[in-house]
Amino acid sequence: MLNPSEELTAMIAAAQAAGAGLQKHFAKLSDLSIRAKSGPADMVSIADEEAERTTRGILAQARPEYSFLGEEGGIVGGGDSRHSWIVDPLDGTTNFLFGSPLWGVNVALARDNEVIAGVTYLPMLDELYIAERGKGCWLNGQRIHVSDRGDLITAVLACGIPFAGKPDHPLFAREMALLSAHVAGIRRTGACAVDMAWVAAGRWDAYWERALNAWDMAPGVILVREAGGVATSADGSPLDLHGQNVCVSNGAVQDALMKVLNQARDEAA
């Protein structure tokens, strides 16, 4: 990427440092102190907390006046009310703990609640995705673009499946019933960071999920947009970063996908 900003340079350093630390703990379920967050299926480990401290420290050196919103520590205000770092130090914790390589570090910068820069680092896959508004999306130094498939019948979609303690199980079941017969495939990796980055890279044609937080989706929003795709709420309305749902796609399948997802919502109501 040509001429990354000082902020993006710090974000890359923070994500890589956190990722290096996390790799030391990868798949060591019995060695980590683990507790449940919102329920028994929603886990957090000491590795998550260490990674968040690492990212926060590096980002604070670059712009100490920006606020910091992290998954583990919540929001810490800064003197600049317009700018905020948004960090998920370990997206895909269950994958991480049980030995799946599909997990990553998410770091984003928002201005007035609009994401202007994002980094998703997938350490076990050696994939570093970066984007900055107006500068394109890049994977390991190579510019990437969303796919150009325009028909659902040829599309591979990704989704998040609500686990125990999450809402909208009947809605998700209806979505799958309506979509599965009309697409080339539906995948679930278990990590929003992976799925959104892979839409940007053209590996998936779209991804949607509900019951998310800003730190889950923030980097992926700008990755997809700078790769030529679109990011909206799950009903097709303008994206609210704190609205707890998202749909990203290559743009070409967006209207058809929204038609089915909204039909499912109406039928499940």
UniProtKB/TrEMBL annotation:
Its EC number is 3.1.3.25. It catalyses: a myo-inositol phosphate + H2O = myo-inositol + phosphate. GO terms for molecular function: inositol monophosphate 1-phosphatase activity; metal ion binding. One of its GO terms (biological process) is signal transduction. Its cofactor is Mg(2+). It holds the Pfam family Inositol_P. Keywords: Hydrolase, Magnesium, Metal-binding, Transcription, Transcription antitermination, Transcription regulation. SUPFAM superfamilies: Carbohydrate phosphatase. InterPro entries: IMPase (IPR033942), Inositol_monophosphatase-like (IPR000760), Inositol_monophosphatase_SuhB (IPR022337). Mg(2+) 1 binds at E71, D88, D91, D216. Mg(2+) 2 binds at L90. It comes from the Bacteria. It is an enzyme of class 3 (hydrolase). Belongs to the inositol monophosphatase superfamily. This is Inositol-1-monophosphatase. It comes from Pseudoxanthomonas indica.
